[in-house]
Design goal:
extended; alpha/beta; Alpha-Beta Plaits; five-stranded mixed beta sheet; 61% helix; 540 residues; Rossmann fold; 4 domains
Length: 540
């Protein structure tokens, strides 16, 4: 491989010096290429901004822009460029300013070819060292990227066994590209093991296949990720806003995983389900519970899914903790589960009545629940005036609640007002999305690749949600709406153009003219040819 040549530029207002340096230095022998010569700083800067060289040698005193100003601009734009200051004045102030802008050397005129060669030789050694360091750093970055999957798995396994969360947890998640939102309300572990495990290379293939099966069974939209623990089990970490909701979803997922893996691997697969925890740093507890559930399944035999709650007869204490009532009710409102939110209000009122003997504890619980719901309103940008009466103080109001029935009624009313506001806003959003979708279809109906999936992807909306709102607002499904539009456009072309049927089909989004004719006849009661010739137009 040819040795690298570093580019060199001279900037001096004396032509003899520029040409003398250019013509009297064996550039390639010293490891450099002469890249240009300029008579003043302004001229040089304009050229250097297009392509910055490795070395710039500049005189200080020049018209338009002096060398110190030029050097400062060069190093600001390209800190790795080496700057040589050339001057005819042996002035300490110039030397001080050169040091200030971090020039590589300060050279006094007249400079001899021998002196300049020695300077360039030293400079080349520095550049070579920096080039090696740069390549080493790039190699390290490549190695880091290649090993990132292993580092992610190692960090996740540390998280499962750590007694306390690692320092800068969110920063580590982000740097490793682990998509766990640390601010979620609940986290849970389910663990999968199978009896169909081979040894050696086959074991690795089995594990890859098992992980792929887990990911496939859960689906792309599942809020979780799967990885391998040190004992070659597949661990799934998932997250959500509500501990109880997450638990229910994971219990269903566990049944699906056990059935799918047992079929695909031809041997029983077991799934252990831990309890949901409120903080990511406490994930190890859920993991240990999932491990105990797996051990119980192994001892008991026959059962494919085991939940720690069933193993211990434990009932989650999420609802018995003051801090969690507001979070649970807020999570239900976020998912439009109004009945669930109202049930939680009832449970809260009854639990507070039977659990707390202290008046202070009772009202503290109410204040914490109200604070969580107000935080929800802030987060969802719900104006206070839409929920509370003008001039009212909700915290003062709950201080006047004296019994369980009053507490239940007050918080139920608050929940219902929030739900009504969110429902109205969602309805407005749905109507807007339906109109946007109709305009999208009008614009792209001629695209044969237009589909429900492509429309939803471009409109950033799920297919299930879109199908629901579009049917409600357009009184027809996406396919029905698109078909009607295409047939109507085809009718226009048949009436106003001499295009052949297959050409009309292509113009309105059908690749197959025969299929187009069938669709047209079904919609209008006549064929395209008959319609053009004045046949019955049942579609108009």
């Amino acid at each position: 491989m040819d040795a690298k040549l570093y580019s060199f530029v001279i900037v001096d207002d004396e032509r003899e010096i520029r040409e003398g340096i250019r013509d009297n230095i064996p550039w390639e022998e010293l490891g450099f290429s002469f890249a240009g010569a300029y008579g003043n700083g302004a001229e040089a800067l304009e050229a250097l901004e297009k392509e910055m060289p490795d070395v710039v040698m500049t005189d200080i005193n020049m018209p338009f822009m002096d060398g110190l100003a030029l050097g400062e601009r060069v190093l600001l734009s390209s800190p790795s460029t080496k700057l040589l200051i050339l001057t005819g004045y042996d002035d300490f102030e110039y030397a001080r300013q050169a040091l200030r802008i971090k020039a590589s050397d300060f050279i006094l005129k007249p400079v001899t070819p021998r002196e300049l060669r020695a300077t360039l030789a030293a400079l080349k050694r520095t550049l070579d060292e920096e080039d090696v360091e740069k390549r080493d750093l790039e190699q390290l970055k490549r190695q880091l990227e290649e090993s990132r999957p292993l580092l992610r798995e190692r960090f996740l396994n540390r998280l499962l066994v750590a007694e306390a969360p690692p320092a800068d947890l969110e920063g580590r998640l982000a740097s490793l590209g682990i998509p766990i939102p640390a601010d979620s309300g609940a986290f849970q572990v389910i663990a999968v093991e199978s009896e169909a495990r081979r040894a050696g290379e086959d074991l690795e293939l089995d594990l890859i296949a098992a992980r792929n099966s887990v990911v496939s069974a859960l689906g792309q939209d599942w809020p979780g990720l799967a990885f391998q623990d040190p004992e070659d089990r597949i661990v799934v970490v998932s997250w959500g806003q509500s501990a109880e909701e997450l638990y229910r979803e994971n219990l269903k997922a566990a049944e699906t995983l056990a059935a799918r893996l047992s079929r695909s691997e031809g041997a029983p697969a077991r799934v252990g389900v831990g309890e949901a925890v409120g903080e990511l740093g406490a994930l190890g507890r859920s993991y240990r519970e999932a491990m105990r559930s797996l051990a119980w399944l192994r001892i008991r035999g026959g059962k494919r899914v085991g939940a720690y709650r069933e193993l211990t007869g434990k009932i989650s204490d999420a609802h018995a903790t003051r801090a969690n009532w507001g979070k649970a009710i807020s999570a239900a409102l976020r998912t439009a589960s109004v009945d669930s939110a109202l049930n939680l209000v009832g449970e809260m009122a009854e639990t507070l009545r039977s659990s707390f003997t202290s008046v202070e504890a009772y009202y503290l619980s109410l204040r914490m629940t109200l604070a969580a719901l107000i935080d929800l309103m802030d987060d969802l940008e719900i104006p206070d005036a839409e929920i509370f009466d003008p001039g009212s103080d909700p915290f003062a109001e709950i201080g006047k609640l004296t019994d369980s029935a009053g507490t239940r009624a007050w918080f139920a009313g608050l929940v219902q007002r929030i739900a009504r506001y969110l429902g109205a806003r969602q309805e407005n959003f749905a109507e807007s999305k339906a109109r946007e979708a109709a305009a999208y279809i009008e614009e792209r109906y001629a695209d044969a690749d237009l589909s429900l999936a492509s429309l939803c992807k471009d409109l950033y909306i799920s297919t299930s949600y879109f199908s629901h709102i579009f049917k409600k607002h357009a009184d027809r499904t996406f396919v029905e709406y698109l078909t009607e539009l295409r047939v109507r456009k085809a009718q226009e072309l048949l009436r106003t153009s001499s295009m052949k049927t297959y050409e009309v089909a292509g113009e309105v989004g059908y690749r197959d003219a025969h299929y187009f004719s069938l669709i047209f006849r079904k919609a209008t009661g006549t064929t395209p040819s008959a319609y053009r010739n004045g046949g019955t137009d049942a579609g108009d």
